[in-house]
């Protein structure tokens, strides 16, 4: 157990949650977590005065998840949030933290979405409800007993809820819950209206106050690029073509991602290494020394593995995966722009992460400018510029030149100096195109995305997803003998890879590797071949399995 997890473990967090937060890259508790978690674990009502970005979601989610009963398939936790965006963010956090807890389900309830799926999730036994007040009151009008089993209530950003006029809705919700519950209230400010709610609905609340100390480094140039999750690797490769960096550290959330990204960069000729929690200490030290002396130029790391990494030649920090809070973002980018040097920080943002980008900008007080992917012409110009910079000192260095060898080669090959120069140029640029048409052929098409993960719809899918539709509709591969094809709604857009599904099914289903046939990952779903014998029993075992924080929900696939 690492020191960081020891710090979380000392707060009494459930072991399964410790495993999940380790995988998510959490290092050590923030001040709001250190103060709040013990109080909530002990059953106290609490008022937390804290800005967004101080880690307050984990401050209430971790202890509450540690205390719920997964066997009780009924609502136990209610989190109220002022906006749809915050409700989705909090629900995602609960899913991430509970990923290793069997049987825990989370539902987000908000306006602007159909009520049917929300009702279904509640009926199926979701223990955690994250809701906006208005939509929750709509549900209560249909089912007055919906909140009768709630043990834990959290009011997140309570001051924002009152600004949006939810006071009457809050009173309806309070009256629909048991008096014997634990209530936690978080608010950036504590005006009289919030204090009035606390006096009326909280029992002897403990108070915690945390001021955000996040500051950015003025010498760091910050930029972000909107990109879909399944396009990240190609986006990284294209941006690195045009970024003029000395050394770079790229941050991702998982150990596997460090290996995947490093492998993709190495295949393109970059001097790169992965740094994650599985790397032995002596190997870690070698990687850092190699980064310092120039044998490596790029390290792809998780937050935990990068702890204490301080290399003065780092000019760029690349947030390939979004950090979980603004403090982590500032800590990451602070590894560049040191010793009076300018630094540059790049951030990839998926559509669902727009709100976290806004939080980072608000808390740090700095705008993170949006950039576009470089086109083929820009990439070609960058390649020519780098080649010119590499050759310029060699042209000037008369001592290293060998006219005798030049004369020998032109004679031996019976060619002109120009022809020899062209041949040597082709050899030195082998593997990279240096014509516009060649660069265009190299670059994968990356479709610009809209304001959310789903493309505009026309029927089932939007016109902008025409190529995706064709991929989705292509016929499945021939079925392996003795196997049945099963379907899950998880696919590329959820960041799912075949290894994720394979690992989950092997671990939870108790199968041997050869019992599982082909796994086909599509954009919005995946197909897995499983043994026909004992299929229903196997699907029962996998009923509560989660992959990347989302329910697997495998079903037998019946082809038309």
Give the name of the CATH superfamily of the largest domain. P-loop containing nucleotide triphosphate hydrolases
Main sheet properties? 7 strands, parallel
**CATH architect. name of the largest domain:** 3-Layer(aba) Sandwich
Spatial order of strands in the largest sheet: 3-4-2-5-6-1-7
> What's the mean pLDDT score?
83
* Count of alpha/pi helices: 22
Envelope shape: globular
CATH fold name of the largest domain: Rossmann fold
- Please report the distance between the alpha carbons of the first and last residues: 51 Å
What portion of residues belong to β-strands? Answer: 15-25%
Taking pLDDT < 50 over at least 5 consecutive residues as the criterion, the unreliable ranges are 1-6, 448-475
Structural class: alpha/beta
- As a whole number of angstroms, the C-alpha radius of gyration is 27 Å
Helix content: 40-55%
Summarize the structure in words.
- Helices cover 41% and strands 15% of the residues.
- It has 560 residues and is an alpha/beta fold.
- The protein folds into 4 domains: 3-209, P-loop containing nucleotide triphosphate hydrolases (Rossmann fold), CATH 3.40.50.300; 220-370, 3-Layer(aba) Sandwich (Rossmann fold), CATH 3.40.50; 376-442, no CATH class; 466-556, RRM (RNA recognition motif) domain (Alpha-Beta Plaits, 2-Layer Sandwich), CATH 3.30.70.
- The protein has a 7-stranded parallel sheet with strand order 3-4-2-5-6-1-7, sandwiched between helices. A 7-stranded parallel sheet has the order 10-11-9-12-13-8-14, with helices on both faces.
- α3 runs parallel beside α4 and α4 crosses α5.
- The chain is globular, with a radius of gyration of 27 Å.
């Amino acid at each position: 157990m690492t020191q960081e997890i020891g710090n979380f473990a000392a707060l009494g967090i459930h072991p399964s949650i410790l495993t999940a937060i380790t995988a998510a890259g959490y290092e050590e508790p923030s001040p709001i977590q250190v103060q709040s978690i013990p109080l909530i674990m002990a059953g106290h009502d609490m008022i937390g005065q804290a800005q967004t970005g101080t880690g307050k979601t984990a401050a209430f989610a971790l202890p509450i998840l540690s205390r719920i009963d997964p066997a009780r398939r009924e609502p136990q936790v209610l989190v109220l949030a002022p906006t749809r965006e915050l409700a989705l963010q909090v629900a995602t956090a609960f899913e991430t933290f509970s990923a290793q807890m069997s049987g825990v389900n989370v539902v987000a309830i908000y306006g602007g979405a159909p009520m049917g799926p929300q009702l279904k999730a509640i009926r199926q036994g979701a223990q955690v409800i994250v809701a906006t007040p208005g939509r929750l009151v709509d549900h209560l009008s249909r089912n007055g007993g919906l909140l009768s089993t709630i043990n834990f209530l959290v009011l997140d950003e309570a001051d924002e809820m009152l600004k949006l006029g939810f006071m009457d809705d809050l009173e309806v919700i309070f009256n629909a819950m048991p008096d014997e519950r634990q209530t936690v209230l978080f608010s950036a400010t504590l005006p009289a209206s919030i204090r009035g709610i606390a006096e009326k609905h909280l029992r002897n609340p403990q108070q915690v106050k945390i001021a955000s100390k996040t500051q950015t480094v003025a010498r760091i140039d910050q930029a972000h690029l909107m990109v879909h999750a399944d396009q990240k690797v190609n986006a990284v490769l294209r941006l690195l073509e045009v970024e003029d960096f000395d050394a770079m550290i790229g941050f991702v959330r998982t150990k596997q991602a460090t290996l995947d990204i490093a492998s993709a960069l190495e295949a393109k000729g970059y001097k790169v290494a992965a740094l994650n929690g599985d790397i032995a200490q002596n190997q870690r030290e070698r990687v850092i020394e190699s980064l310092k002396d120039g044998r490596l130029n790029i390290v792809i790391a998780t937050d935990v593995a990068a702890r204490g990494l301080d290399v003065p030649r780092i000019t760029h920090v690349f947030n390939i995966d979004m950090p979980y809070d603004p403090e982590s973002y500032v800590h990451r980018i602070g590894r560049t722009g040191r010793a009076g040097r300018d630094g540059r920080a790049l951030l990839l943002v998926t559509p669902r992460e727009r709100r976290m980008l806004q939080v980072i900008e608000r808390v740090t007080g700095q705008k993170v400018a949006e950039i576009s992917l470089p086109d083929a012409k820009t990439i070609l110009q960058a390649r020519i510029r780098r080649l010119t910079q590499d050759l310029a000192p060699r042209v000037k260095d008369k001592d290293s030149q060998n006219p005798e060898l030049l004369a020998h080669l032109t004679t031996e090959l019976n060619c002109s100096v120009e022809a020899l120069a062209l041949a040597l140029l082709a050899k030195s640029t082998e593997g990279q195109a240096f014509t516009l048409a060649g660069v265009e052929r190299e670059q994968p098409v990356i479709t610009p995305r809209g304001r959310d993960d789903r493309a505009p719809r026309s029927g089932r899918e939007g016109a902008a997803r025409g190529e995706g539709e064709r991929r989705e509709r292509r016929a499945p591969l021939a079925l392996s003998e003795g196997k049945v094809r099963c379907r899950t709604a998880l696919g590329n857009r959820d960041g799912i890879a075949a290894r994720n599904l394979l690992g989950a099914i092997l671990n939870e289903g108790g199968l041997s590797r050869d019992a599982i046939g082909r796994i086909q990952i599509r954009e919005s779903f995946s197909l897995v071949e499983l043994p026909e014998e004992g299929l229903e029993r196997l699907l029962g075992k996998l009923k509560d399995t989660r992959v990347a924080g989302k329910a697997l929900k495998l079903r037998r696939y019946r082809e038309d």
